[in-house]
Fold this protein.
Amino acid sequence: MVRILLIICGVALVFICAGKFTSQANAPRSLESDDYLWKIFSQCEVRTNQNNSYSISYLPGVKAMGGKQLTISGFMQPLEATAKFSHYLLSRRAPTCAFCPPGEPNEIVEVFSSQPVRWEENIVTVKGQLILANDSKKGIFFQLKGGR
């Protein structure tokens, strides 16, 4: 009886390890974008207000970027359940699950693409006009308009 239990546990361990290696093979190559803009954005101080909304203090260098074209790399977080979409979040960190928040408010950019795109699992690069949104209720402080 003990021998059968050991065999069953051994087989189960093989399946668990095989699943772990398979999921890692399909996982994004990196779990965090090392784009320098995320380092700058994350230095902007975010505060939680008494009414459960957020506010941000933009650094002078970030304020100077407002309205300018920039390029940033990160992970797509779709907001629509469609094959292609033109409105999504770009996050510094890879999503851990489809229903988890994407990260800190100063590590997220809301993107409005000029044309619909398909979801990509790995890091993508997006170019567009930076808008300093300061939407305290949604916790969105950075937007890219006309993303490509």
Remarks:
- The longest strand covers residues 124-135.
- Strands lie at 45-48, 54-57, 69-78, 84-91, 108-118, 124-135, 140-147.
- Residues 2-26 form the longest helix (25 residues).
- The chain has one domain: 29-147.
